[in-house]
Amino acid sequence: MNTLEFLYIATAICPDRQFIVFEGNRWSFAQFNGRVNRLANAFREFGFRKGDRIGMLHVNCPQYVEAYFAAAKIGAIFVPLNFRAKSDELSYMIGNAGANSLLVGARYFNMVKEMLPALPSVKTCICVDERQNGAYFYEDLIDSASSGEVSGDIDDEDITILMYTAGTTGRPKGVPLRHSGFVSYILENVEPASPEIEERNLLTVPLYHVAGMQAILGAVYGGRTLILMRQFEVKAWLQTVQDEQATRAMLVPIMMKWVIDDPDFHDFDLSSLSVITYGAAPMPFHVIRKAIAEMPGVRC
């Protein structure tokens, strides 16, 4: 089994259920899969093939999720890049990965453009959210490509993501992550999609981190609605839980502390929440104790 099968299963079981909610826009599982097919077909028209590295530099957005699955459909390796990294660190990661294409958010485009002369492996640059000179525009590719289903020779042991470490003790290191590793974790921890059970998962963890990508795959396999935020901000998180009736959320410990310590915490209706998962750092006991006291109906 590979991660693509998560999408096929959820799309077959609940095609019309909202999959992604982002800044007022909504896409069903069927609509999402159609856009993924268009992007995968555009990748093939560029000549991308199995084993190619496709880099992504942007904050959380629906295109990030689409790009992962489109890369997976053609057997390419997705390379999520830390948008907080400095230009020399990014240049190293892109060159080290041997990325032949980059999908870039407009806010990072000028920096990337200055780096490109030193990155001979990069042949194609796609701007995600604006038209830019010297780059293809993401939505133009979606509009012009076929929506026909894309299939490739994908093995369970193929590398699906090359994820770079933070590089706190030296250069960032590329960690190859295989379909089988994600599948093993998800099957052990997530119930499959059901037409009767609907969950709404709020995600603010950055998608360049393994926790973010793992949450994406869990949401897909579980047939969950994924409420994406570009980045974490306490008031926006509280408002989004209330407005979108989120039932699940993932926070790192410091985010949890900021939420429960916010002076306006009690002004928001968080009663829809039933589960908060956390990770990436040890959870201080006083933080989790306060979280349980403040949100007694939430399983942490």
TrEMBL record:
GO terms for molecular function: CoA-ligase activity. InterPro entries: AMP-binding_CS, AMP-dep_synth/lig_dom. Pfam families: AMP-binding. Residues 14-297 form the AMP-dependent synthetase/ligase domain. PANTHER family: LONG-CHAIN-FATTY-ACID--COA LIGASE, MALONATE--COA LIGASE ACSF3, MITOCHONDRIAL. This is AMP-dependent synthetase/ligase domain-containing protein. It comes from marine sediment metagenome.
